[in-house]
C-alpha cells in the first residue's frame, strides 16, 4: 500500500481495549479506525471514527465494515476466519493477519499440532475424546492442565486436573472439546511480541510475565533471565513468526523451563496484554507497529527505551457494578508512572479495566521497579473509600 497522508481507513473486528489503544496509535499516523463490536459505546468508540454495532461473526456487519475500509484486521480471536476470507475476496480488501492463521490459532489443539509439526518446541499435549481418555492421561502424566480447545482467555477455559477422580467434573465445566497439556516445571513465563511486515520481521525485547490464577498481573521488560535464555527465546519467537502467515503483531507466550529450555505456550494473532509496556518503554509501541504492518508500511524500531514494568488494573469488586476508579492521584503524582484507562462502563471481578506502566530512566533494579509498580497499582480500587 502506497504511504500517503491523510492515511487509509483501517477496519477492526473488535472494539475492546486493544481496539482503543490501536485508535490512540492510529491518529498520529493519519489513519482512521472503524471498529465492529457488539457492545454499544465500546471502549474503542471514543477514539475511532465510527463504530458499527454488530456481532463479530455477523455477515452484514462485517460486510458493512469492509465497505468503508481500505484494509481489515482484528483484535479478538472470536472473529470468523471463513467470513473474513469471503468478505475480503468479495470487496477486494486486504486482511491481516491471514484468516488461515486465525483459524489455526483459534483451536488450541490444532495450534499445538501445527507448531509441533513445524519443529517448534511445545509442552507434551494430547486431544481428549472423553472421560476415559482424560483419566488415562492424568494417571500417566501425574496431572495435567485441561484446556478448552476454543474460546478460553484470562484463566477461563483452563483447569488443572491432578487426579483421575477429577476428570468428570473438569469435563463438565469445560465441555467435550478439550486438550490436555502436561504441567511444565517452569522457572518463569516469558513473552515475545513479534511483528511480520511486508518486507521485514522484528521482535521486541523478551518480557517476563507474572500470572496469578492464569490472569496476567504484571510484566517486566527486559525479562530477569540470563542472556543465553533471552537469545533462545528470541530464536524460538522468530521460528514462530516464520511459521505464521499474514502481516501484523503476534503475542508469543513462552515457558522458560527449570532446565533452561524454551517452550511455546500459546500464540495470539494480535497485539497482546504482555506488550502494553511498549507504549512508554519501546521506541515504537506494538499498536503503532500493528497498524504499520497490516497496512504494508515500514515497521518502526522495537528497541527498549528503558527498563519498564506494566501492571494490570483488575476489578476488585464482589459483584458487577458501574465503574469508578479511586485513588488515581497516587499514580498521577508519581514520576515516570503512566495510567491507561480502558473506558469500560462496568467493573466485574477480575475484569481488566486498565493498566499502569512505570519506566526507570536510571536503569536500576528491576525487582525494585516491579515492587514499586505493583504497590502503585494496589492503591487503585473500585471500592469507594469510607
Total strands: 19
- Largest sheet, described in full? 9 strands, antiparallel
- Overall CATH architecture of the largest domain: 2-Layer Sandwich
Helix content: 25-40%
Which features does this protein show?
alpha+beta, Rossmann fold, D-amino Acid Aminotransferase, Chain A, domain 1, about 375 residues, nine-stranded antiparallel beta sheet, about 25% strand, 12 helices, Dna Ligase, domain 1
Describe the structure.
By secondary structure, the protein is of the alpha+beta class. It has 3 domains: 9-95, Rossmann fold, CATH 3.40.50.20; 124-182, ATP-grasp fold, A domain (Dna Ligase, domain 1, 2-Layer Sandwich); 186-379, ATP-grasp fold, B domain (D-amino Acid Aminotransferase, Chain A, domain 1), CATH 3.30.470. Helix content is 30%, strand content 27%. The protein is globular, with a radius of gyration of 21 Å. The N and C termini lie far apart (56 Å). The model has no long low-confidence stretch (mean pLDDT 94).
Amino acid at each position: 500500500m502506497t504511504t500517503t497522508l491523510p492515511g487509509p481507513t483501517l477496519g477492526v473486528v473488535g472494539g475492546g481495549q486493544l481496539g482503543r489503544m490501536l485508535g490512540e496509535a492510529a491518529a498520529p499516523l493519519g489513519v482512521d479506525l472503524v471498529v465492529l463490536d457488539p457492545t454499544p459505546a465500546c471502549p474503542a468508540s471514543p477514539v475511532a471514527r465510527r463504530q458499527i454495532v454488530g456481532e463479530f461473526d455477523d455477515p452484514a456487519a462485517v460486510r458493512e465494515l469492509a465497505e468503508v475500509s481500505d484494509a481489515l484486521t482484528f483484535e479478538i480471536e472470536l472473529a470468523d476466519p471463513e467470513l473474513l476470507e469471503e468478505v475480503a475476496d468479495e470487496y477486494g480488501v486486504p486482511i491481516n493477519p491471514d484468516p488461515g492463521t486465525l483459524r489455526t490459532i483459534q483451536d488450541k489443539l490444532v495450534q499445538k499440532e501445527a507448531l509441533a509439526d513445524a519443529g517448534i518446541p511445545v509442552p507434551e499435549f494430547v486431544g481428549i475424546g472423553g472421560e476415559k481418555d482424560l483419566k488415562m492421561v492424568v494417571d500417566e502424566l501425574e496431572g495435567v492442565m485441561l484446556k478448552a480447545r476454543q474460546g478460553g482467555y484470562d484463566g477461563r477455559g483452563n483447569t488443572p486436573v491432578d487426579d483421575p477422580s477429577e476428570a468428570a467434573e473438569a469435563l463438565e465445566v469445560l465441555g467435550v472439546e478439550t486438550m490436555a497439556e502436561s504441567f511444565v516445571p517452569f522457572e518463569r513465563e516469558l513473552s515475545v511480541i513479534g511483528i511480520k511486515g511486508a518486507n521485514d520481521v522484528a521482535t521486541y525485547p523478551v518480557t517476563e510475565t507474572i500470572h496469578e490464577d492464569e490472569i496476567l498481573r504484571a510484566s517486566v521488560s527486559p525479562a530477569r533471565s540470563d542472556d543465553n535464555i533471552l537469545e533462545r527465546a528470541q530464536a524460538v519467537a522468530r521460528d514462530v513468526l516464520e511459521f505464521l502467515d499474514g502481516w501484523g503483531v503476534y503475542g508469543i507466550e513462552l515457558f522458560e523451563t527449570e532446565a533452561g529450555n524454551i517452550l511455546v505456550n500459546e500464540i495470539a494473532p494480535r497485539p497482546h496484554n504482555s506488550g502494553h509496556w511498549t507504549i512508554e518503554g519501546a521506541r515504537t509501541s506494538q499498536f503503532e507497529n500493528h497498524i504499520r504492518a497490516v497496512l504494508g508500511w515500514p515497521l518502526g524500531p522495537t528497541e527498549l527505551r528503558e527498563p519498564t514494568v506494566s501492571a494490570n488494573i483488575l476489578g476488585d469488586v464482589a459483584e458487577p457494578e458501574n465503574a469508578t476508579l479511586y485513588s488515581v492521584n497516587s499514580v498521577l503524582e508519581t514520576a515516570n508512572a503512566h495510567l491507561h484507562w480502558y473506558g469500560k462502563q462496568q467493573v466485574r471481578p477480575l475484569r481488566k479495566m486498565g493498566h499502569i506502566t512505570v519506566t526507570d530512566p536510571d536503569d536500576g533494579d528491576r525487582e525494585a521497579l516491579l515492587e514499586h509498580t505493583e504497590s502503585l497499582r494496589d492503591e487503585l480500587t473500585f471500592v469507594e473509600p469510607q
